[in-house]
Amino acid sequence: MDSTTPRPEILDTAFPWPRPPIDPPPAYDWLRENEPIHQVATAGGGKAWLITRYDDVRAILSDPRVSSDSQNPGFPRFGSMPEPEDQRLFLRMDAPQHTIFRDLLAKNFTLSAMKRMRPAIQELVDDTIDTMLANPDRKADFVESLALPIPSTVLSWLLGVRAEDRAFFNSAADRALAATDPTNPAALDIAMTAMHELRAYIRSIAEERAALDDPGDDIMGQLVGAARAGEITMMDVENSGFLLIIAGHDTTTNMTALGTYTLLQHRNQWDEMRNNPALVRNAVEELLRYLTVVHLVVLRVATEDIEIGGVTIEAGDSIIPLNLAANRDDAHFPGADQLDIHRKARDHFAFGHGVHQCIGQALARLELQVIFETLTRRVPTLALDADSADLPFKRWSGINGLFSMPVTW
Ligand code: HEM
């Protein structure tokens, strides 16, 4: 894109704009080039500053004058109401409340905790692939057979979901994904019901644990222990369990499906990974950067006036740091629109940046590494069984993905 490219008309329509299946909306490139800090009207009826350059996104996400508090009237909204105060998730809180939850949960996601989980995740991935390959027709819906069950099963282990409830938990977590399918008018109701069921389920585990002398050492047990010690409330226990399900499930599922789709579209890079598994770790970072599936979730509000890039963002203004636009900034990632599994991309913003940077990133990386290493090794002939043009991409969702993906091998 050069400086003579005309101003896209979509800039005058309410944000967010639909995402093409894989790449960012083209207007992001124009903004990054011409008006890197630009105020737009939003679907919620307000205005928000879009930030599109890598360096500016990093500066905003590390700035203490920027808040994640969803109760602040300036917090960006795309038409939704703020959640009731007692259902607020720590994703949408500032210090000191936010810090209490991070400190409580961080130990579950350390590299050493992940190292201990690797063998179990490898076994789960192998079993899931065995089940998929058992179909004599050599066909499957990749989302249903692989991308959905792996993250939800891993989450159920971490939280401490009873083995006999796992099928319910996985199904409710999967139905909650339906929310963003505009072609299915029943989807929103299905998803809302599933979310209520999940909350009620998490509450029931919390209450059950609270009645025991020892609430256990999985995440639900730790949270109930913290409530018993008076550090948090039982409502906080429910909200935190719920956030972990919502944040840890859809994200990894979509990244698995879209990552596989993208590699199948770049067959030479899939083959390279198969021949050289040492590349997988790097490839996962590049796929995270290139796809930035969580692209409309990082939202902020200014608590003081901020001068940035020749613009004043005033206290109370909504800010949308576009991690997707930043991850495609040529000034930081030369040739950013090309997928290159050899690129050193680990400083991408697919997991955000700053104090709210994804708490589950080590787990997401581990799951994705095991999945891609095992798939390229065990199912090297995996191929799409549909035209790309017919695939149901989640074009309107804040988390990009695929509702289904027919494959063969
Ligand atoms: C936060 C992306 C997987 C739990 C975030 C944020 C992003 C993100 C961009 C930052 C939001 C912000 O700054 O406002 C992703 C992606 C994933 C993934 C792309 C998978 C590929 C997971 C997993 C878990 C998880 C597996 C847990 C099991 C969370 C939580 C937060 C968060 C609890 C809130 C952190 C805070 O506010 O301090 N994630 N995530 N995520 N993520 Fe993830």
UniProtKB/TrEMBL annotation:
Keywords: Heme, Iron, Metal-binding, Monooxygenase, Oxidoreductase. GO terms for molecular function: heme binding; iron ion binding; monooxygenase activity; oxidoreductase activity, acting on paired donors, with incorporation or reduction of molecular oxygen. It comes from the Bacteria. Pfam families: p450. PROSITE patterns: CYTOCHROME_P450. Its cofactor is heme. The keyword Transport does not apply. The keyword Heme applies. Belongs to the cytochrome P450 family. This is Cytochrome P450. It comes from Rhodococcus erythropolis (strain PR4 / NBRC 100887).
